[in-house]
Amino acid sequence: RHPFRVSSSFVCRNLYHNNNKRWKTTATRRNTLGVLLFFVLVLVSVAFFSSSLSSVFSSFERMTTTNNNNNEEEEAQQKCAKILDHLRSMNESERERQTRLDLSECGLRAVPKEVLRLRNLEFLNLGKNKLNALPDSFAKDLPNLKILFCLANEFRKVPEVLGEMEHLFMLSFKANKVREIPEQSLPIASLGWLILSDNEIEVLPKSLGKCRKMRKLMLAGNKIKELPTFMSELVNLELLRASDNRIEVFPEFLYRLPKLAWLAFAANPCTEKAAANAMERGTRAVKRVVNFEDLGVDEGKKLGSGASGTVYRGEMDGFNVAIKVYNNMGKTSDGRPEDEMAAASLATSTTSDIVEGEQDEQEETVGSGGVIETLAKFTTKDGKRGLVMEYLDPADWKNLGGPPSFETVTRDVFDEREGKFTAREILAVAVNVANGINQLHKNGVCHGDIYAHNILIDRDEDYPSAKLGDFGAAMFFDDDENPQFSQMVRENEARAFGCLLDDMLVNYDGTRGGSNTVMIRENIEAGQTQYAGNKIFMEPKSYRPSTHLDNDEGKTEGELTPAQSREERERRRDEHLQKRTHERREADKGLVSINLPEDGHEKTIASLRQLADDLMHPTRSVRPKNFEAVVKRVQESEKLFFGDYYVKKLESLQILQRRRYDVDLLRDRSLFRRKDPKRREKRNDDDKETK
User: Fold this and answer.
1) Strand 123-125, strand 147-149: pairing
2) 8 Å CB contact between 325 and 312
3) Which of 84, 113, 161, 218 makes a 20 to 30 Å CA pair with 487?
4) What sign does the CA torsion over 263, 266, 269, 271 have?
5) Cβ-defined contacts of 171-176 (< 8 Å, 24+)
6) Distance (Å, rounded) from C-alpha 419 to C-alpha 426?
7) Pairing state of beta strands 216-218 and 193-195?
8) Tens digit of pLDDT for each residue in 121-140?
9) In angstroms, rounded to a whole number, what is the distance separating the alpha carbons of residues 476 and 492?
10) Phi, psi (rounded to 5 degrees) for 168
11) Which of 144, 153, 95 has the alpha carbon at shortest distance from 124?
């Protein structure tokens, strides 16, 4: 009963409760640690299993790659052995007749002795091997060699033995590891075509300036910081590719080269400012944005592919279109994919400075018609950008010519059967391409590759048409930034256009082509009349996909939501075609036939011949200062073909139609809806003038 006396039962009871509580706490801690340990073990097991799987897969991939490489090496060895066995089996007379030899992709590490016995060899392809040197007796054993390809080998310097070759005209060391070009390595007496693209060259040898026969020089994709002044001695140079280098100052001697016509200089510090401005304007030039998934692209079926991207066939607003997906980090032999995309976007723009909202008031953006039109733009899910362009059916549209050969060097080649042109076809190409180039120049775009193989032609008997495409070598210029450079670009492109005309005139078949009459529509009330090339035609908006925004719906015209079906698109297309058919029938009521002059086509050919000679003149001051002057000269030739009566009739229709169209457009603008007596008076005067 003492206050500090504690009974034994109380002590035992407290000890039990304390021990039980301590036991429970310890068990909880043990359970928690166990769970954590279990999860750690699971994670370690998963990581180990994943690393094991990844190592297994990587080992499998290495084995597969090794097997593929082994298979490729075996195939290369078999190919090489077969060719060498054939060379060994030749007798002396057969070896003398052997002038061409292709040893590409044969896995060569040295030039075989059998090759060095072909003393009359003129063409030798050693591309895509593992060569890093040529034998010292190469020039002595192959004295007649004219063309040598060493593409994609392992050369670190151009062999000096090549400087001893007296007849070597074409030399290619593209996509090697070349850093050094010795002074003695270039055959200065005979070299006319040199390809050194995609290497690590920083300095060019002085002996390059002594190659007076040089016509084609490819230096793109190197580390060159400046083009030396001794290159001003290359007076016969016609084509220069120097894109994707480190050139900070544009060389002034290029302004004076008399025959330079094809120039690519994109992706250099000296042209980056104009390029950045052009890319910004290009993004604003194409107003319409579409979803790539809605274009119906079958990625398994390609229309074509290259270093800049891939082209597919798709559908937009019920019409066939061409879809080009650009390689974001791609690299081409003449520039960058982003330069090509910007040039294609600006190609059909009607103004050189695209302003947001400027074209919203217009019903349609109408370009020159001489270039392939860009309709919309998109971005894929993986971030690749692309353009939707008009689709030209291969059944109707063909390449005007083929790329230059080893014999023509800078001039295109034409098919012996289909490479002859009527006067009507030559005129159509001249009109369409001249308008297209002029449109490009207005937007600060230099095409850089005006060739027949970059032009598609529809050889309709009465109404042929042509379009310029392929902007892979495009670059940009700005009159305010560098007017001298801009002027040189125009003069170069004028010469290139003159060479194009010259090539076609050489292949003139001596006939007019088509019928002796031309049709013209006088019923302009049926719709807006337009003129393209040598024909008057009706071109309502519904004929092709729209390129502008529909202000009434507040969204892109013709753009379909995912919920809309293919039947809806077909219904829209049928409505478009029905409307177009009705408009054409109405327009056909005003058709008038006009006879062409009997000697008009001969006068046209003579006029174009004179134009081509003036454009190709080596003195730059003789050439036109801008391409608008070239367009006017072409229009004069066009008047000779169709006659004065047709031209006057056409001009009167265009003036009357333009006035009517302008008045209709102004009626819809809000400024005429205000109660302003002066503006109402002006509107009434316009109506009277139109009537």
Assistant:
1) parallel
2) yes
3) 218
4) positive
5) 171/195, 172/127, 172/148, 173/199, 174/198, 174/199, 174/218, 174/333, 175/151, 175/199, 176/150, 176/151, 176/152
6) 11
7) parallel
8) 999 999 999 999 999 999 99
9) 14
10) -70, 115
11) 144
pLDDT of residue 592: 74
User: In the numeric block, which tokens belong to residue 442?
Assistant: 């207005």
Strand partners, 519: 593
What are the E-state strand segments in 196-318? 216-218, 239-241, 262-264, 302-305, 309-316
| Strand boundaries in 168-295, DSSP class E | 170-172, 193-195, 216-218, 239-241, 262-264
Residue 672: which pLDDT band, with cuts at 50, 70 and 90? Answer: very low
Cβ neighbours of residue 489 closer than 8 Å, sequence gap 6 or more = 263, 441, 446, 477
Closest listed residue to residue 187, CA positions, set 214, 219, 162: 162
Contact indicator for 222, 196 with CB cutoff of 8 Å:
yes
As a whole number, mean pLDDT of residues 337-355 equals 76
Q: Which pair of tokens denotes residue 689?
A: 């003038």
What's the pLDDT at 364? Answer: 39
Phi, psi (degrees; rounded to nearest 5) at 516: -90, 5
CB atoms within 10 A of CB 352: 15
**Residue 102: which of 78, 132, 77, 123 has the closest Cα?**
123
Asked whether the beta carbons of 212 and 231 are under 8 A apart, the reply is no
- Half-sphere exposure of residue 190: CA atoms within 13 angstroms, side-chain side: 18
Tell me: pLDDT of 588 over 90. no
CB burial readout 380-395, b (16+ within 10 A) else e: eeeebbbbbbbbbeee
Phi-psi category of 675—alpha, beta or left, where left has phi over 0 and alpha has psi -120 to 50? beta
**Contact (CB, 8 A) for 401 and 410:** no
E-strand ranges in 44-169 read 100-102, 123-125, 147-149
Q: Provide, for the chain, the percentages of residues in helix, strand and coil under a 3-state DSSP scheme, each rounded to the nearest 5.
A: 45, 15, 40
Residue pair 318/569 in contact by the 8 Å Cβ criterion: yes
- CB-based burial of residue 484 (10 Å sphere; 0-12 exposed, 13-18 middle, 19+ buried)? exposed
Beta-carbon contacts of 187 under 8 Å, excluding residues fewer than 6 positions away, are: 162, 163, 164, 165, 166, 168, 171
Give kind and range of the element (H or E) at residue 655. helix 644-667
538 DSSP assignment: E
Q: Is 167 left (phi over 0), alpha (psi -120 to 50) or beta?
A: alpha
- Report which secondary-structure segment, H or E, holds 611: helix 600-615
Whose CA is closest to 173, among 208, 219, 138?
219
